[in-house]
Amino acid sequence: MSKKYKEIPQWVWISFFVLALGKIALTNSQPVFAIGWNSHDDKLFLSLADSLLHGQWLGDYNNLTLAKGSFYPIWIALNSLLGMPLLTSQQLLYAFSCLMFVLALRPLKLKPMILLLVYALLLFNPISYANGPSTRVIREGIYASETLLVVAGFMALFLRWNWEMKSVVRWSMISGFSLAALWITREEGIWILPTVFFLTVVPAFWIFKNRLENRFKRLALLALPFGLLIISISLISALNFYHYGIFTPVEYKQKDFLSAYGALTRVKHNSWQPDIPVPAETRMRIYKVSPAFAELKPYLEGDIGKAWSSNSVFWRPATEEWVADQQNLEISGGWFMWALRDAAAAAGHYTSGEAAATYYRRLASEVNTAIAQGKLEAARGVKATMTPLWHKEYLSPLLKAMAKSAVFMINFREFDPRPSYSIGNDSQLALFRDITRDKLSQSPKMRVTGWAVNSESPLDITIHTADGKILDSSIQREQSPDVYPHFQSLPWASEARFSITTTKLTGENLYLSLKNNHGSVEKIPLDGAIKRFQSAKTQGNIEAVSTVTNNSLAQNLGIRYLESIGRIYGLILPPFVILSLVYYFIFSLKMFRSLNNFMIWVISSAILGAIFIRIFIVSFIHVSSFPGVNTLYLSPAYPLMLAFVSVMMSKITNSLGRL
Description:
Layout: H1 10-27, H2 42-53, H3 71-82, H4 86-104, H5 112-123, H6 140-159, H7 165-185, H8 193-210, H9 215-244, H10 255-265, H11 280-289, H12 291-294, H13 297-300, H14 303-311, E1 313-316, E2 321-324, H15 333-346, H16 353-372, H17 395-410, H18 426-436, E3 445-454, E4 460-465, E5 473-478, E6 497-503, E7 510-515, E8 521-525, E9 532-534, E10 538-548, H19 553-594, H20 598-624, H21 631-634, H22 637-657
Keywords: Membrane, Transmembrane, Transmembrane helix
Transmembrane segments: 72-105, 112-130, 142-161, 168-184, 190-208, 220-242, 568-586, 598-621, 633-650
């Protein structure tokens, strides 16, 4: 059946383009926040992308090769081949996802101006240019876009359930590829499935009920996205099997690793703590009954365990906060999985994917057998999972964390468009520059200018800390026609002026060091206490100590504009979110009585359900594993929140228009 809707006016298309171009121009002021040493996240994705660029799939096999989904490294590699700055390509993807969502709404016959407002509201979502999710080389840079694309695709299929086949085919392909990309980007893609299934089952039922023409083809198109998902997962798994001997898209979903993790975490603790999956006392008991786990003892109780313990933070229910506590080598939930894999690698079990799987299979078997024989007590049945065992003590903090997450999101808390300063040495940061094709944020510099003359020789000028550490710096010698006439007997006085620049260190007491060829040293504090200095052999003047930033005026202006837009969202959105929720519940009651506007109710419920599930998962992680209530882990829920508000406010506007 062919369905017609009013074409979008040309002025709206032009407005879409201008808004996207403006967003790109503003976000172009943001450099990449590089964390050069972060081998488990930022640096890992770049290393994997570098291997792809060299035709080596994901590179040599180790405990990190298959630890995370491969789509983001693939995205980075393709972006690098195209020569496009990484942050720009991610902003283009987000703009595209916003456009697809607006186009998906067309069957609702919204006014062109409403469509434009929906697009603008989604496009300038503050978290799409927030420091962290959008400035680091991290999966969240594309994950929110993928989420919005998945919802838009399946929503479009739902709204076009009885439309001409050509339109359905396009949206089915978009849905399938976006779902596959999302699934292969992160490991917890299951959170979006209830929304996807809801938007699929309802039109499938209608197609059967109404006996539409080509109904089996239509049902096949509804199933096509899931087929594309399975094909994509199988393709990635096959490539991993070919290169590493293990058929899995990512090892955190591999059954042997999950079985081993599940076996370790099912052992009952002597004293349960909400955020520690395998306490030190439990590890000691498992070592005694599992030779496989005992192989890891030198590492889990040694440097590897100490390192992950020192990075761990622990939940304190009494104060409802996370604190550092390094006693007893306890490793919290967010870090134990990494400690386990690092220890297994140190013990020599990561020579290949099959070798690692064989080891984890043996570990799981030994622990589960020990439990079956009564050598260890179990807190739950055999289960291949990384999900913490539910305890009733989680309920109260979980509900509080969910409320905290909702308030956190609605108010856009912790939003900041200013990228943090990049961290790492030159060799570490070179990988970021080369592959992202983007500029990196840099720490502000301190520049000291002045002049100095020594009566015995030219001076070696450096900057050092109070404990004598010399800082890397660059120095420029300058002609000094104003100084030289006073020291004409000293040829080097003709270049007595200097400008020395080094990294600015907050909270450090820094000194200017003046050393002549005979080893004589003058030390001048740079706190402003001394300007003019003179000793028996050296005299000079510190004329200025200034801070130098690498941002241009345009960059600073762009970031200020982004900051202002984010503040406007934080002020205006909360009442609209509350109004949308209230209207949704009133609208739902009316809909169930009359079944009017059922299609709008379905899509708004599907979006709201996805938000709720994301908040639930993040909140449960927050109270059971590691601090999760932040813009990073909630990032895919923000565009959904704006989408929900858009749908509800559009419905309210249409209702008012009929009055």
